[in-house]
């Protein structure tokens, strides 16, 4: 029998956490043959709610679930974890300045970086979901120097999946037949959803999206803003932010990272820049990646036109500014 893997979910009493833990327990993240022990962390005000989630996990009698740790103690939560999904954070509230939100999250991610560094498994893979996701991941990397930088990532897979969804709706094709869209940059409204390399599998073979959607204007305007603003559209409709789609995308992110991306298909992940595509090292930036044997690599050699270049640089610029703001908050 396979040994169970320990998966940490922070902010587990929140709405994404509530959608995510049953998916993990059902095998959506690590596969149908991989037993798991779920570690859930939240803060004192949510301690009772967290107990309730633990009860429900027990009540669901998941065959793959070999144990549940539910705690408000970061050290206990991080002990021995192989995968850490960081969903907990301080949300922006009405009237709050960007700097105040940043300041709260910087201190949370600094503390949790230390807890992971001290207590997690040496090869722990980290996915940051909580916003500002890229910059929280960067702070985590800075304050957990013994965790390899390749192991610290942030979630842009939801944006990636949203882009696939928009193309599939527009062309009335199945979403599984659309592939190789890219989300570049920050998980924010400056992200650049790029279809220049995307294809659709049709009955007469593989076709570029740009050939099937012969509407440059739509692709350059409405498509991009729809993906960028999708989070806001969900809040408007649901009066709550995206949760099931975020949880599902977090499972996709980890599953592809650990088990590998399918042949000829890439996905988007926020990863530590190595200078690819002229994006300066020192930022956590979303790139197209393929994964094999538990390691991601950035897809190289894609042609970047002038329109795309400007978009790639603008979202990098925003990340630079967030990084500066984060450092300001540290001092
Ligand atoms: P909720 O407010 O429902 O849940 C957050 C949970 O985190 C709460 O239970 C809270 O008590 C807990 N928490 C706060 N500080 C903590 C700490 N220091 N340690 C542990 N837990 C802590 O938010 P939810 O809707 O679940 O969203 C969670 C985060 O995901 C937010 O930051 C949100 O902005 C971000 N999102 C990121 C997305 C992405 O694609 N990267 C998309 C969805 C989502 O908006």
TrEMBL record:
One annotated GO molecular function: L-malate dehydrogenase (NAD+) activity
CDD domains: MDH_cytoplasmic_cytosolic (cd01336)
Annotated positions binding substrate: 92, 98, 131, 162
Binding residues for NAD(+): 11-17, 42, 105, 129-131
Domain Lactate/malate dehydrogenase N-terminal: 6-152
Record keywords, A-Z: NAD, Oxidoreductase, Tricarboxylic acid cycle
InterPro entries: L-lactate/malate_DH, Lactate/malate_DH_C, Lactate/malate_DH_N, Lactate_DH/Glyco_Ohase_4_C, Malate_DH_AS, Malate_DH_NAD-dep_euk, Malate_DH_type2, NAD(P)-bd_dom_sf
Residues at the catalytic site: 187
UniProt xrefs under SUPFAM superfamilies: LDH C-terminal domain-like (SSF56327), NAD(P)-binding Rossmann-fold domains (SSF51735)
Top-level taxon: Eukaryota
Recorded family membership: Belongs to the LDH/MDH superfamily. MDH type 2 family.
NCBIfam families: MalateDH-SF1, MDH_euk_cyt, PRK05442.1
Name assigned to this protein: Malate dehydrogenase
Gene source species: Rhamnella rubrinervis
């Amino acid at each position: 029998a396979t040994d169970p893997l320990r998966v940490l979910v922070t902010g587990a009493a929140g709405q994404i956490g509530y959608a995510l833990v049953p998916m993990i327990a059902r095998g959506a993240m690590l596969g149908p043959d991989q037993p798991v022990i779920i570690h859930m962390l939240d803060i004192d005000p949510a301690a009772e709610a967290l107990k309730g989630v633990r009860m429900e996990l027990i009540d669901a009698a998941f065959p793959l679930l070999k144990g549940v740790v539910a705690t408000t103690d970061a050290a206990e939560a991080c002990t021995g974890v192989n995968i850490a999904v960081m969903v907990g954070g301080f949300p922006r509230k009405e009237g709050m300045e960007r700097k105040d939100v940043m300041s709260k999250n910087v201190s949370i991610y600094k503390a949790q970086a230390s807890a992971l560094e001290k207590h997690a498994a040496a090869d722990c893979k980290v996915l940051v979901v909580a916003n500002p996701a890229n910059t929280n991941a960067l702070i985590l990397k800075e304050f957990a120097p013994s965790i390899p930088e390749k192991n610290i990532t942030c979630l842009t897979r939801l944006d990636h999946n949203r882009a696939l969804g928009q193309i599939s709706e527009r062309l009335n094709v199945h979403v599984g037949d659309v592939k190789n869209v890219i989300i570049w940059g920050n998980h924010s409204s400056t992200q650049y959803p790029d279809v220049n390399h995307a294809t659709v599998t049709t009955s007469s073979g593989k076709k570029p999206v740009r050939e099937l959607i012969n509407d440059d204007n739509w692709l350059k305007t409405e498509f991009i803003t729809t993906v960028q603003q999708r989070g806001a559209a969900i809040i408007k409709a649901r009066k709550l932010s995206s949760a099931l789609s975020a949880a599902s995308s977090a499972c996709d992110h980890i599953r592809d990272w650990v088990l590998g991306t399918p042949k000829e298909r890439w996905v988007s992940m926020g990863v530590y820049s190595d200078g690819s595509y002229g994006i300066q090292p020192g930022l956590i930036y979303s790139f197209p990646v393929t994964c094999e044997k538990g390691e991601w690599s950035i897809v190289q050699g894609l042609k970047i036109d002038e329109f795309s270049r400007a978009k790639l640089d603008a979202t990098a610029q925003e990340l630079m500014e967030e990084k500066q703001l984060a450092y300001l908050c540290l001092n």
